[in-house]
Amino acid sequence: MARQTKMVTNNFIKMVLVWTFVSLMALGCSSSLVKSNKAKKVVKNEEIAELNQFVLKKNFKKEELSEAQQEADKKIEELILDAQKSGKEGVQYLASDLYFKATDASIRGDSQSAAFIYKYVAKLYPEDIYVQKKYAIELIRQGDLGEAEKILLAIFENKKIKREEDIGLVLGGLYAAMEQPDKARFIYSKILVEFPKSEEACVFLSKSLALEKKIKEAYSNLDRCQKKSAKAGIFSYYKGKIALSENNKNEAAKYFQEALNLEPSYYQAALGLGLIYEEKEKYTEAVKIYKSYLKKNTQQYAILSRLVQVLFATGKFQEVLPYAESLSNLDSSDLNLKVRLGILYSDSKRYSEAKRLFTEILNSVPDSDKILYYMAALEQQTGNIENAIGNYNKINEQSPLYGDAQVQVATLMSILALDSEENDKKIVIEKRLVSFINSKSDLANKVELYAVLANYYESENRIGEAVQTLINLKSEKAYLEEHDYYLATLYEKLGDYKSSRQIVSQIVEKNPENPHALNFLGYSYIESGENLDQAFGLISKAVKLRPEDAYIRDSLGWYHYKTGNIKKALVEIKKAFGSVKNDVVITKHLAIIYGELKNYELAKKYFLEALKNCKLDSERNEVITAIQKFEPLRLPASLLQEIGLEKK
User: Fold this and answer.
1) Cα→Cα distances 270→147, 240, 289, 303, Å
2) What would the pLDDT profile of 87-120 be if each residue is shown by its tens digit?
């Protein structure tokens, strides 16, 4: 049993000396606590060493704490008695050793340990105010407010020593924490008598009055303090804080501005004023306040942070860039900010800086799916296809981005195959693409992956394989109406209008008010030269449903062209082009209309525009075929070279 008790005691004292927190007071020691070598003969080193050995172990059961504490108390009391018997030097030696142990615990944040040991130092030196103060502070930290109050009040009311402002402030704060506002205000008032320029006492007194709804008294107190410190902005600022607590934002804004006028570097006032404007959604005014402050105080973190947030929230992405850079430099650990800054760099085409930032982030969080995705997209944007594929493939299967990342990988592989000029290399990459998609056939986005393959076959003008790829997906739950549209388009390219119209007719049967399906059917009849009256009815209905849709307007214009009404055709297709300027078909139609009107200058302009927008060889071939119908528009070799249709 004795051995067990000793172990518990050791564990308790380890707790006493290891739990840590930075001391409120500056680290130092009273002049009376200096070790004496002579004293070692009186208080044996072995006894101090035995006390030190109590720190060997840490864990102990809660129910053992009381027993351990009693044992520790007993041990130190014995040391104190021995030291006192040996005289002044023995007391000094023991007190110094205990003091350093308590201070070490305080610095480490172990208030329980520090308070436990300071208690004995204070017992050895009851007149040492510095030690008493340190003991009281540690008691507060561990929640023993009653005992701390006794010590601080005794010091504060001791007429033999000069009253210290900081003791009063701690005591006032203690009363506030103990919900004894009258006592707190009494202490603050006493401080102001002896220290009339004490900003802290003035503010704490006014805050206490405001909490008791004694608003006029709070304002009056701050006014008195302002007269004694005319250039200080703190008193106007706290008037603003009181006004805010009363929900009087206009009054608060006035006081915050007053504080800024008195003290332009008072960032809390600028922050308070800016936040009021933000709450009122007057973001322009808030930005002006923040920017004005930062002209003279460029590194103020809180203001920079608010400005960056407001500029991001209001979509001022280019404007926010330099401020986001400054903020990131101040806090390099803010990974979210680095991500946003990286995206800004990417949007600004500052790709090397974006890559540098994303690389830094990945060094900290190498498995971040979002950053891997951003990095992959950036590599893709800068043409580093294999690097992009590598980053997409690093995304974990459990990530919500995994499925989309695999679709991106398939898309990039198809781009590599399409861009390959060597047939053997193209075959190798195509096999890689097909193998990759087949290996992912159990994913939820299987349909998207095979749609990429169908698109690849279409781009290679292997329309039959594209059709078959989509047909194989029809039984999948993820096969949607949009895939049917695509399949219908492919059938048309094969000249199989019956299959194409059958698919879209089924869509119309389900929803007779579907403007896109109506337009598709109508345009199909126009292109084949069949049922033009029916085509006009279908497209007219689609126009009524979606009058602003450029593609439907183009179909209506093309109907007028096919039926010989060139002027009406021009009106409708110009409307379509005005809404969508980069669509190859609409631009080609406009060029054809101008060609029919013998306005060859405009016809050439729009044919060239259509050619520049072509992404597929099939599109280019269709545009060139249309150009060849107009003899005056035959393009010189130099222009064909310029748009990449003929090798230099």
Assistant:
1) 41, 12, 7, 8
2) 888 888 888 888 898 889 889 888 888 888 888 8
